[in-house]
Amino acid sequence: THLRMVTLEMKFALASTLFATAAAFAPVQNANVNSALNAFAMVTLEMKFALASTLFATAAAFAPVQNANVNSALNAFANGYVGNEGPEPMPFAPGGTSVDFDPCGFAERAPEWVPWFREAELKHGRAAMLATVGFVVPEFVRVPGDMFSFEAVPKVIDAHDALSDNLAQLFMWISLVEACTFPALANMNNYDRAPGDYSFDPMGLYPTDPEAAKKMQLAELKNGRLAMIAIGGMVAGASITGNGFPYLP
C-alpha cells in the first residue's frame, strides 16, 4: 500500500511537471504584457509546485515504512528460517551461544542466496542421514549376492575398491535425483516454495500446525547437521583404523 501511494504521487508529480512545461511554451492569446507576465508567474508557480511534489514523492519512496509486519520475515535473521534459535553454548562464537551463528556473515553479505544456502544444507543433511544408516547397517546385514557377501567385502569401507564397477550406476542414480530438483531450485524465488520443500510426504507425517511444523523442521535440520559431521568421522575412522563398526582402534 505504501509503495502504491508513493508511485501514485510520483505519477501525479510527473504529470504536473509535464503540464506546467507545456503551459510555459504555449502561445499567449492576449498580447498584453502584464497578462503575459501574470501567465508566466502562474506557470512558474505550477512548476515549483510540481517540482516540490516530485521531491516529496521521491523522499517518501525511500522513507522507512512504519508498519513492518509485511517485511518482518525478510528483516529477520536468515529470512526467519529455523536453526538459529540456540542457545547452545559456543565458546568461540561472538555471543558465546549458537544464536544467529554466522561467523562468515553469509546471510548478511548475500541475502538473496540465503534460500539456496538453506536448500543446500537440507539436501546435504538428508543425504548424510541416509549415508550414516547405509554405512552402519551393511556391517551386520547384506543384500543377496556373492559380490556383496561378507567374504567378498569384509568391511563396508572396502566396498569402494571391491565394487568399483558399480560406482558408475551409483553416480547415475544420484545425478538423476539431482536433476529432478533443478526446476524447483530455479523457481525458488519466483514461487511460494520453502527451501527443501518438494511436496513429497506420502505418509502424511508433516504437521499442519505451524508450531509443530517448525519443530519438525528444526529436528530435521539438527539431525542433518549432526549426520554430516558423523559420516565424516565414520569414514575417517574406518579408513584409519581398518576396523568395522564402531570404527575404533
Explain the overall architecture:
The protein is mainly α and 249 residues long. It has helices at residues 2-24, 33-62, 72-75, 106-109, 114-136, 159-162, 167-180, 182-186, 210-241. Helix 1 runs antiparallel to helix 2 (33-62) and helix 5 packs across helix 9 (210-241). The longest helix has 32 residues, at 210-241. Mean pLDDT is 74; it is low at 1-74.
Summarize the structure.
The chain has 249 residues and is mainly α. The protein has helices spanning 2-24, 33-62, 72-75, 106-109, 114-136, 159-162, 167-180, 182-186, 210-241.
Q: What would the keywords be for this entry?
A:
9 helices, single chain, 249 residues
Radius of gyration: 32 Å
Helix tally equals 9
Largest sheet: none
Provide the helix percentage: 55-70%
Q: What structural category arises from helix and sheet content?
A: mainly alpha
Strand fraction equals under 5%
Overall 3D form: globular
Strand count: 0
Q: Compute the average pLDDT.
A: 74
Low-confidence stretches: 1-74
Termini separation comes to 66 Å
H/E series: HHHHHHHHH
